[in-house]
Amino acid sequence: MFRPYPLKIQENIPSHAALSKGEGMAIVCPETKERTMSTQLDMYKARQHEIVREYNGKIIAVKDGEVLGAYPSKTEAFDAVVRQYSPGEFIVIKCTEGDEEYTRRFRSRAIFSTAEAPA
Q: What are the residues facing 63 on neighbouring strands?
């Protein structure tokens, strides 16, 4: 008999090894309120076109819509910026055009029907 395991929610940031491989999205501290993170991301999105012109394809740290620096990896960016600011006061993101870096899309082949199942 199949018994599904209970879902355990992980509330930690990706490991340094995962980040060095480019996995993960923006880095934030788990204790940080979601509102702060989304505010930082909203400020980045508002200036994204301007920022991409100068930093396209680079890993950047952003606080209040301003680029704090460009770095070779997300791990190095986080380590450098966390010395000045608390985690959650900034985001670390790969600077690209479009929303691919901060949006995840999931697709499924499941078919959902609105018709009632036969009794």
A: 66
3-state secondary structure of 83: coil
Q: Which residues contact 72 (CB under 8 A, 6 or more apart)?
A: 59
Query: pTM, whole model, 2 decimals?
Result: 0.60
Q: How far, in Å, CA of 78 to CA of 14, rounded? A: 12
pLDDT tens per residue across span 64-95: 889 999 999 999 999 999 999 988 889 999 99
* Phi, psi for residue 59 in degrees, rounded to 5: -85, 125
Scan for tokens 């697709």, then name that residue. 107
Is 60 exceeded by the pLDDT of residue 104?
A: yes
Cα–Cα nearest to 62, from 49, 75, 73, 51: 51
**What are the b/e assignments for 69-87, b being 16+ CB within 10 Å?**
eebeebbbbbeebbeeeeb
Query: Could you give the CA distance from residue 66 to residue 64 in angstroms, rounded to a whole number?
Result: 6
Greatest CA separation for the chain: 64
Amino acid 87: pLDDT = 85
